[in-house]
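All the exercises in this workshop are built on plain-text protein records. A record pairs a protein's sequence with a compact description of its fold. Backbone structure tokens are a discrete shorthand for how the chain folds in space. Once this layout is familiar, the rest of the handout is easier to follow. As an example, a complete record with its sequence and its structure tokens follows.
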Amino acid sequence: MPNPDRRKIIPRRTPESAAMTASVRRAMLLTARLNRLTYDDAAEVRALFGELTGRAVDDSFFLIPPFYATGGADTRVGRNVFINQNCTFYDLGGIDIGDDVMIGPNVSLITSSHPITPSERRNGVIASPIVIGRNVWIAAGVTVIGGVTIGDNAVVAAGSVVTQDVPPDSLVGGNPARVIRSIAE
């Protein structure tokens, strides 16, 4: 059930929860096939990634396996996108990646979480979208949390945890990530 703040709330033991579980199973089967491929199997990687997301990706898309996902149907990728190895996408809330984006190794884009209140924690899943603008570089080992928008031309420094929106043309880093400086030309 969508909310005005773009969140999805999926309670346990509902048809939505069953669909989410089926999506995870499907994604695990497809990513297992994808992860048997090598660097030189770029066309096959693109085809399997397109099958995972339900939409063809541009010939300029390049992903180095292994890659992990818990869905796929809620991931949209622009042209000339590079995803390095060992990345994890939890896309229940939606992941939109703009053109010319570079994603370093060991990056996690996690749109889903659980309620914080202990008595409600196992009651379901909460998911919010991640939007990555054009010409963004997300360096190695970054984690981006649901509900975040990363503006055009931004750079996220290695090892950062992004919990808030990133302004365009900025360098952010740390845990939680904070603006370090402007990189506007």
